[in-house]
Amino acid sequence: APKQENEENRLMAREHMKSWTVGDVTVTRIVELWDFQDNIRMTMPDATEEEVIALQWLHPHYATPEGRQRMNFQGFVVQAPGRIMVVDSCIGAGRQRDFDVFCDLPEGFLEDLETLGITRDEVDTVMCTHLHFDHVGWNTYKDPHTGEYRPTFPNARYLFGRKEYEAWQEVIRHDGHHTDTHLVECVDPIVALGLADFMEAAHVTAEGLWSEPSPGHTPGHVHLRISSQGQEAVITGDLMHHPMQCAMPHRTATFDMDKDSGRATRVDFVNKYADSGVLVIGAHFAEPTAGHMVRDGQGEVWFKGLGL
Q1: Which residues pair with 259 in a beta bridge?
Q2: Average pLDDT for residues 173-188, to the nearest whole number?
Q3: 176 alpha carbon, distance to own chain's centre
Q4: Which sign, positive or negative, has the C-alpha torsion 33, 34, 35, 40?
């Protein structure tokens, strides 16, 4: 039954591939888990179903009538002049992770990529906003003949935050709270082959593509900024997981390793990008994944998904 459900979800996710244009740049989401629903406390430990129900703008796209959150697990392809970049390569197929919902996912990510006319050999950059398992999965694939993990995108340079990588090596993978299976499978082989570039938090990948520091969720977390032809966008990474956090950035996030820093990052992010006209693409936001943070007449911030 779980395998059948995964296959059905896979087909649903493919039907909901979507692209956005930012000047000369195209951003496309590739979804591995579509419309994942759970208690809001998965994301915000002190939030309640009643609060979710009360925020009418969350419904029906980002919340269920019962006050459960709706979210996706997805990666992004950024096509810019002279650049084909994968941003956060999602979970990966056939993996064994700490929660059943992420285990033994079907193939499909590369097939979805090919629907864009892109082969894995043509990807020149892979950027990970941070090194959690659901953001590095397709960095590698398991060779069916040797059992070794090989780079999925053999001609790409893989961008890992220097601070992020060092934190995982020195502390996080040895702290007794985090398993490092995803590092062994999806990060270590890339480093061993010399395909990794360790970037500073403010890193320019190409003209109009640069990272900004957003620590808290992890020590070296970054988000990606896009600027082209007078249009602006940002891919959030996990500085927030759900649109409700646009309205309540000061609230604690369950998975932030440094919760005080995470709160400060979200507050700064909302203050900077609310009413800015910058397109916000939420790494885990359900459909519509992209939209704008806007303030109402009372100064409250809400997320207005494109098309709503």
Answers
A1: none
A2: 88
A3: 25
A4: positive
- Specify the 3-state DSSP secondary structure of 11: helix
CA–CA distance, 27 with 40 (Å, rounded to integer)? 28
Say how many residues make up the chain: 308
What would the DSSP string read from start to end of 123-147?
--EEE-SS-SGGGTGGGEEE-TTT-
Contact 229, 24 (CB under 8 A): yes
d(CA 70, CA 229): 33
Distance CA 275, CA 107 (A): 39
Per residue in 18-53, pLDDT (tens digit) is: 999 999 999 999 999 989 999 999 999 999 999 999
In degrees, rounded to 5, the angle at the alpha carbon of residue 33 between the alpha carbons of residues 249 and 181 is 85
pLDDT digit string, tens, across residues 17-27: 899 999 999 99
pTM over 0.90: yes
**Max Cα separation, the chain?**
61
- Band of residue 153 on the pLDDT scale cut at 50, 70, 90: very high
User: Which phi and psi (to 5°) does residue 49 adopt?
Assistant: -60, -35
The region that residue 271 occupies, defined by phi over 0 for left and psi between -120 and 50 for alpha, beta otherwise, is alpha
CB contact at 8 A, 80 and 25: yes
Run of H or E including 234: strand 231-235
